[in-house]
Amino acid sequence: MTASINSGDAPDKCDTFLRYLEAEKLRHEDVFRDFLLADTDPLLSVVVPVCNTPLAWLRECIASVVQQSYPRWELCLIDDGSSPDSGVGELLMQMSAADPRVRVRFLPENHGIAGATNVGLSDAAGDFVALLDHDDRLARHALLYICLAVRSNPEAGLIYTNSDRITATGARADPYFKPAWNHALLLSHNYLNHLSVYSANLVARLGGMAPECDGSQDYDYVLRAVESLGRSEILHIPELLYHWRVVEGSVSLGNLGLAVKRGRAVLRDHLLRLGSSARPEPHPDQVIYNTLAFDKPGGELSCLVYGSDEADIRLTCKSVVEDTPDGLRLRLETLHERPASLSGAICCWISSRPAGPVLLVMAGITVASPGAVLAMVSRLKGTHAVAVGPALQLAGGVIAPAVEVGTDSDYESSISAFVLSFDLEVCALSTACILLDTRHGSPSPMCFDSGYLTTSTQFLAGVQPSATSPPVLLWTPRAHCMSTSSRVDLGVLSQPGDVQTWRDDAGDISGNVRGRSS
Fold first, then answer.
1. So what's the pLDDT on residue 9?
2. DSSP state, 503?
3. Facing residues of 426 across strands?
4. What is the rounded distance in angstroms from the CA atom of residue 153 to the CA atom of residue 84?
């Protein structure tokens, strides 16, 4: 078994990934050993558009489906006008003759990736449809895990998995450990991507991929898909079940201009369909990804700075005042002494303020980069979030956001540190620096006692959490705050009992952050 991270990564990270792959092999074998096929288990269709694929890669792709440990599948191969001398047609016929579950359609001319995929979608007879690129591979137990996910939630509309890449030498590299369903992250890039599996009912409702979106047709497809699905209908399997081949000249390496342009166009259409005024723009640090621009907010911003040290209070107040943009009327108040019940005092103050954006900041925390207040307020007003929190850096390091991973797992799951470049929907925010929208109600005193607001926090009025539609808590790296003061109470930032992600874990795979598996 070969594995690598990136050529610039430290050897210990490569060793960590190797150990992960060894544990993965044992874990998958255990799942397979315990699996018994049931009459009600779904037929899974795998749709693969093919066009002039190098034969060795195409053989690997097809073999990765034929050799699946889960037997109830069909493979729909759509030859999209491959040249006669490519050998693709002969190989497809050989594979079809060898296994009746392999079905081939030959298109007389090239329809493009969306058009060829649509032929496969219309041919698919399965209860769920998986999309596989013609030079990629599925993990041997990928479809078995899909079956188990369907068993756990038969009403699922969309299932996605983690993925990694296949290098030119055949090594597995660059694991992408994804979070559970996270709409905010999807707005930055198509993080669901590989492997994505759609229910037949959803495929019928969507009506096919848009040929005019070729290059970003899958992004447009998934954006349209999630518009009609509830949170409980989108499942994440935190396993590396898709191996994406890195090919010179492919979208995975470069030549992204047209794909990026079309990707922003389909994202803009998605936001318009949702009634959002946000606009997609190039991410400042990673231009092939997106960030959202919001209308400049106006109105009043209430702010409470609380603490016992006068110098820290003055420092924080000065920082907030200087960072508040023109157009926002800042009403700043301070709480100088720690009362018998800090949480009660904060809740009392919140209830005295007009309903709207309320910023709470612990004395000693300051804005680390200009625009933090604007970033938080614009997101609170431009999204459905009930609270927004910044990237918060303390003397001991950055507090990592609490992001859910997905389905239950018998191992400690991870989330790639890569996602910390983007806005994220999280399951907890530190109350040491938090912006609340009190139009949705005031959080209970308990969250201020514990030092964190969670999606299960009981609100005193307004929105109440539910399993199917919990309040949206948004974390954004576009707002960066920090404190080097030893007087900032780290106790209120301690790890919540039901949330397993707060701090970076330097020893994790590829610089990942530990995630919650719930």
1. 40
2. B
3. 473
4. 44
Q: How far is CA 213 from the centre of its chain?
A: 22
Average pLDDT over the chain reads 83
The SS3 of residue 38 is coil
Map 228-289 to HEC letters: CCCHHHEEEEEEEEEEEECCCCCCCCCCCHHHHHHHHHHHHHHHHHCCCCCEEEECCCCCCC
Structure tokens at 216: 């970003």
Query: Is 50 exceeded by the pLDDT of residue 501?
Result: no
Quick check: bond before 195 cis, omega within 30? yes
For residue 351, the surrounding DSSP H or E stretch is helix 342-352
Closest CA to 243 of 64, 16, 113, 54: 64
Cβ–Cβ under 8 Å, residues 228 and 167: no
Q: What is the DSSP letter of 50?
A: E
And the tokens for 21?
Answer: 């792959």
CB 436 within 8 A of CB 386: yes
Q: How many helices (H) and strands (E) does the chain have?
A: 13, 26
List Cβ neighbours of 252 (8 Å cut-off, separation of 6 or more): 165, 244, 245, 246
What is the model's pLDDT at position 444?
Answer: 75
Domains annotated for the chain, with CATH where assigned, are 15-282 (3.90.550.10), 299-450 (no CATH)
Task: Look at residues 474, 436, 426, 432 and name the one whose alpha carbon lies nearest to residue 452.
Answer: 432
Contacts of 77 (CB under 8 A, 6+ apart): 48, 50, 62, 92, 95, 96, 102, 103, 104, 105, 120
The tens digit of pLDDT for each residue in 305-345 reads 988 888 899 999 999 999 999 999 999 999 886 666 778 88
The greatest distance separating any two alpha carbons of the chain, rounded to the nearest whole angstrom, comes to 82
Which residues are CB-contacts of 31 (< 8 A; sequence separation ≥ 6)? 141, 144, 145, 148
Helix (H) or strand (E) holding 96: helix 88-98
Under a CB-based contact definition with an 8 Å cutoff, are residues 166 and 246 in contact? yes
- DSSP-assigned letters across all residues of 133-176: -TT-EE-TTHHHHHHHHHHH-TT--EEEEEEEEE-TTS-EEEEE
pLDDT reported for residue 113: 92
Interstrand relation of 299-306 and 357-362 (parallel, antiparallel or unpaired): parallel
Query: φ, ψ for residue 74 (rounded to 5)?
Result: -135, 145
Closest CA to 24 of 133, 214, 175: 175
pTM: 0.86
